[in-house]
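Action item from last week, closing it out:
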Amino acid sequence: MALELQVLTPEKKIFEGSVVSVKVPGNDGPFEVLRDHAPIMASLQNPGILEIKDATGQQTRLRLLGGVVEVLHNKIVVLSPGIGEEQG
């Protein structure tokens, strides 16, 4: 079973799908979420880079403008006031 990830802004859903890992830019330092991660809610750096890895190994990087992340029962929800794809 993979992780289910949602990345949301007030305007729209940026990402929704199954992933194998997510690297999160927490305010207290970056951390990685893998399957069966302990429940956590954390604030995010502004700006910060969210790294998403899917089952095929493809990696997506999104630039966050702060926000929060919640991890519970292999479901991850990232809420950010602004987001854009990382360049380069």
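Closing note: Residues 29 and 45 are 9 Å apart (CA to CA).
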